[in-house]
Amino acid sequence: MNFGFFGIQFSFGLQQSNMSAIYKFLGADEASLPMLWLAGPVTGLLVQPIIGAISDGTWSPKFGRRKPFF
User: Would you give the distance in Å from CA 6 to the centre of its chain?
Assistant: First the structure.
């Protein structure tokens, strides 16, 4: 399982390493790049607990107490 998570993190790192060039191509200046890099993780940090709390209050006959949201 650790190798699987390593692969996911490695592919995420490869994707993120190319984002600065894409942001610059789209017109972002270099001073705003750190905020653009943090936008995804901060959004996940804020949104995932909200979705988890909503999921805790659901019931599904197929999945049980927590209905997964995809």
Answer: 16
